[in-house]
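Most newcomers find our protein records easier to grasp once they have seen one. Each record describes a single protein and holds just a pair of labelled lines. A learned vocabulary of local backbone shapes supplies the integers on the structure line. Nothing more is needed to start thinking about how sequence determines fold. The record below serves as our worked example for the rest of this section.
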Amino acid sequence: MMTLKRFRVQNFRSVKDSGWIDCQDVTSLVGVNEAGKSNLILALWKLNPVRDGEIDLLHDMPVKEYSAWRLTPDKYTFIRAEFELDTDFATEISESCGCNIDICSTVEITRRYSGVKTVSFPKFSNSQSVCSSKISDIVEDSKSEISEIEEDESKISLNNILEELSNIVDNSTTIIKSQCEVFNKILNKKIKKGSATPAFVVLKSEILKVLDVFNYTDPAKDSNIRERIVVNMPNFVYYSNYGNLDAQIYLPHVIKLLKDEKVEGFDNAAKVRTLKVLFEFVNLKPEEILELGKDPEEQIINPNKTVTLKNLTPKEVEDGAKKKEEREILLQSSSVRLTNEFSNWWKQGTYKFRLHADGKYFRILVSDDKRSEEIALELRSTGLQWFLSFFLIFLIESKEANKGAILLLDEAGLTLHPMAQKDLVKFFDNLAKTNQIVHTTHSPFLIDTNNIDRVSVVYVDKDGYTVVSGNLRENEDRNNATSIYAVHSALGLSISDVLLQGCQPVIVEGVSDQFYLNAIKLYLIKNNDFKPNSEIVFVPSGGAKGVSGVASILCGKSECLPFVLLDSDKAGNDFRAKLHNSLYKEQKERVLSIIGFTTIEQSEFEDIIPISLMSKKLGNLLHNEDEIDFEDIYTSEKPIIPQIEEFAQKYNIDLPQGWKVELAKAVKQQIVNPKSKIDEKYVEKWKLLFNKFNEG
């Protein structure tokens, strides 16, 4: 019902203000040790923990503020999270408060140190004005609609009404609330039934819908709505300790531990949790395994504490044998299930598990395709032990106890081999189908370079505070260089994969182009509009000037240079000419310009993206006090990027650094969203471009 879109941590431990951190199905927070990654997800966990997660003023408040803040904890908010409501839930809220559904689709929840949670709807504003062009467009549409209809009294009356409306909207860029009465007076005029009557009904309805914004009630003021939001907020589950299973498990101890009873010498809570989910997963009860394994010769202890053996009847011998057989079948069945399920996730080999019970002891034995002999789990690699325990915890807890929860994983998988860490990335993607994931890491092998937009870098600034940035390039702030190194290492490894695995590399100018192209590739393949001859990998060069160096590395010993895709702005055109006269002198056809797919002079990659996929993000980027929509002035006949920049300058909007990358991230999500409708003319351009790549 609610999807986490972004969160912000403030005044929590080492974090002064993280800024907004965008979230997707899987979000990676990358940074060196002691950068503060754990503090970010701990704060998020405490927004709505499924268990534990109590606010600890002594350790959660910034040390230097503790003495003052501890007395008034209700003044200080430490976590903000923005959620997107699904259509059904947003519709319910909309109907309850009478607001537009778009206003109700996004909700922000905060928590203070006192534990109090607040709810607000960031898209709601007590609007004091409306852009007049919204009504002007409706008026012009109505004029156009009735221009060809039969002339009668209704048409004459409607034309008069349209002129009155035009006089109002043409003389002002905005409509204020006090003018509603004037509009109502005009729209309440009666016209005789005739050819223009339907058009008048539509006109009235559309204009009143625009003006209705003045009548909206803030949904956050309704206590029932606030309560429903908080109740339906996803739980957060935090994991930092993953208890590996022992090879040999003493069943009487397990029975006690599962009843939350103390067992001397056994105080590893993480391991106890893993034991619980193991028996739940294989659908076995330790009491049952213990009982079925008892020998039929039951010992009888008399009052003198001497032991005698009971004489067994043939029937008792037969029943005892059946119980032993039943236990073996149960264990065999569970072993097969564990082996099959685990093989879907683990790609480092084919493993076969056998659950074995011997008296009061329960063991896990492992063999594989290279070593057929069975070896106790405890004697296998710590990586295999970790992954099995991890697999069990999340398969059980994410589907059952924490269904729909958001999983916060702190430094998961660091004991795994690098190739196994890559498998863990795939595991995250599968798990994210039911549970959003936010994880921290400093390993380049746990960074998904196919979805680099999921990554934010965490580092410590010059004042010692934890900082989060989506900018993956080293810039004037050198404090983030060590954290970004892991990301650059991951990108370097992906380039190595291109060379080693025979992929088709395509060099693009920037990360934003990479986002667009990866999303388009997925869209075309999913819709059977494109079938690549080999895997296509898009490699950003850091601008047109970086193309030559990257191309030289990627071509290796191959005589065929990689494709290059350049913008057709001045920088792109100039560098295209240089490549034609140097490295690509003999292979000019492999340097592609975006103008070949847009036919717009000075165009950039954004010009083969439908404006409808950008609308939501542009609305946020270009919000202005005059309530002027960028789409109202946009023309598809000119490059869109200069139009955006001119609009921002005209309305005094400061576009943030890296805004093109943020726009690309948002568009990528729209392209891969199965609900998005994409104009076929753009799909044809995409197909033309990708078929060009197949020629290589």
